Amino acid sequence: MRAIRVASAALLGVTPLACSAPTAVAGNITPFDFSVQPSTIPAGGQVTLRLDRNDGGCKGPATVTSAVFDTVTIPPGRSRARAVVDWDAKPAATYQVTFSCDGASGSTDLTIAGGRPTSRPVPQPLHSRGVHAGEGGTAAGFDLKEIGLGAALIAGSVGAAYHFSRRRQGEDSS
């Protein structure tokens, strides 16, 4: 039990340090922050390209380029996009990823891990055929007891409302 507390405290102490680490390579001073997560990935893996738009340094579309994946555009109002690393990326190689926005650009590194995923990722369509709503339980089975009880409750509620409304009218006229 004590080990869990110590590990939790250590993790909570290290997290702010990890989050405050610089995201760009030294010498890349841009009016916006950017990062590639994870910074080490196997060939064929998927990375998240993050762009910090909170400080106002990037208002327009951002273009992210690299020799290891297709060019990605992050539209205005969005702060992240995904890219799939090419299958022919060389293990243990480091590739440069360049973020460009509003005339400024900066680069960071993406390292390819030694192994490769066991299967190729299946591209997911942006829009599927839609939601299959309204099928579950609506006509699963007609239980006459439940229908009768529901009808009795509704009739009782309507009857009670009518009774009390008529009673008030009688009291008001006297």
Automatic annotation (TrEMBL):
> Which superkingdom heads the taxonomic lineage of this protein's source?
Bacteria
Write the record's keywords in alphabetical order, separated by commas.
Signal
Signal peptide start and end residues: 1-26
> What is the name of this protein?
Lipoprotein
